[in-house]
Amino acid sequence: MPMPHADRAAAAPGSSPRGGRQRDPAADQAILDSTLGLLSQGCSFGDLSMDLVAQRAGVARATIYRRWRNKEELVLAALGSLDLPVPPLEGLSLRDRLVTLVDQLRHRGQDTNLHRLIGSLLGEAVRRPQLVEQFENTVVAARHEALLRVLRDGIDSGELRAGLDLDDAIEMLTGPMAARLILRQRPVESVVFAERIVDTFLNGTRIVRAGTSPGTTPEHLPQPEEPLP
User: Fold this and answer.
1) Which of 120, 124, 160, 226 allows an S-S link to 154, with CB 3.0 to 4.6 Å?
2) Confidence band (pLDDT; 50, 70, 90) for 221?
3) What is the Cα–Cα distance from 154 to 103, expressed in whole angstroms?
4) What is the residue extent of each domain of the chain?
5) What is the pTM of this model?
6) Where is the composition biased (Low complexity) (predicted)?
7) Is 85-203 CATH 1.10.443.10?
8) What are the beta bridge partners of residue 22?
9) How large is the greatest C-alpha to C-alpha distance in the chain, in angstroms?
């Protein structure tokens, strides 16, 4: 077994979630990597333990507890370390902002380790619903807030209906990509799938103008060809 990392006071600045003590970033990364490695190699959430993580990371168990109070916090931190920052959206149209955010799920979701990790988390949803709630409140919170802002901007600008349920809208936008990547384990090769998701969503939620119907093709899409005689 490797010798445990020592917490070094001379490490780069950074304080533990459980206090103001400085900590060793190398130990942090070793703990997170070990957690991800165990889960991605088939260790279930139920079987995961601080002892297993400590042994794999080469740290003392107390080193982990100084950073995370329990297994749930550790797993959420490990998942969060894989997430991508919200991309810049300034200057883009409503459609392009939504496509950018939905397509980023594709980039994040192409990581097969993340597929397995989130699949393992979903398997715990029935027994530990609070874990899924914490996942939503921490790991995916920034992207959720970004989608909320874009949708609110669309309502304020008159592009989207005022009565739109924003939580339902976000599930409509993110659900198909998540189902394709995580549940069905099918790769998404390009941005086209995200564009289809967003266009379908917008076609049902845009303000209906005079002389049009809810099913009218959006202006940014080509009009369907006339049927052959």
Assistant:
1) 160
2) very low
3) 19
4) 25-81, 85-203
5) 0.68
6) 9-19
7) no
8) 15
9) 80
Is 25-81's fold the same as 85-203's? no
Segment (H or E) for 123? helix 112-123
Please give the Cα distance from 222 to 84 (Å, whole number).
33
CA distances from 43 to 39, 100, 130 (A): 5, 33, 20
> pLDDT, tens digit, for every residue of 161-215?
999 999 999 999 999 988 887 777 777 888 999 999 999 999 988 775 544 444 4
Contact 53, 60 (CB under 8 A): no
DSSP 96-112: HHHHHHHHHHHHHHT-H
Q: Is the pLDDT of residue 97 over 90?
A: yes
As given in the structure block, the two tokens for residue 148 are 């909320």
3-state secondary structure 125-193: CCCCHHHHHHHHHHCCHHHHHHHHHHHHHHHHCCCECCCCCHHHHHHHHHHHHHHHHHHCCCCCCCCHH
| Six-digit token string for 144 | 């959720």
Can you tell me the distance from the alpha carbon of 8 to that of 25, in angstroms, rounded to the nearest whole number?
9
Q: Which CATH number is 25-81's, of 3.30.70.1350, 3.40.50.300, 1.10.10.60, 1.25.40.10?
A: 1.10.10.60
